[in-house]
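seq as requested:
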Amino acid sequence: MTMLAPEVDASRHDPAHLATAACLFRGLGDANRLAILQHLTLGEHRVRDLTEHLGLAQSTVSAHCLCLADCGLVTSRTQGRSTLYSLAGPEVLDLLAAAERLLGLTGETVRLCPRYGTQAPA
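struct tokens:
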């Protein structure tokens, strides 16, 4: 099976566009934020639910949810005294699925990367 290359959009090579894309990946570059996103694939959750399911402090979950909302990756709505978070759209699901496929292809290579992996100097 031959894979076709996606159409090349010259604007995607623009430095400003690339800087914005890098900001997106920095927003995704935290294990707690990824855990929250993955949990939200199951549906809408309150911060309290996420705190219990993920074993994180309420302040940590709230801060990460706000970051994800600021990045446009999750949406929120108020219900009584609670804020409920959900994925902003199916594209977030697509991105997480693509990342899982890529991790399946690269195996431990990303984790072992001397520059950005778990053993990289801080």
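The mean pLDDT is 89.
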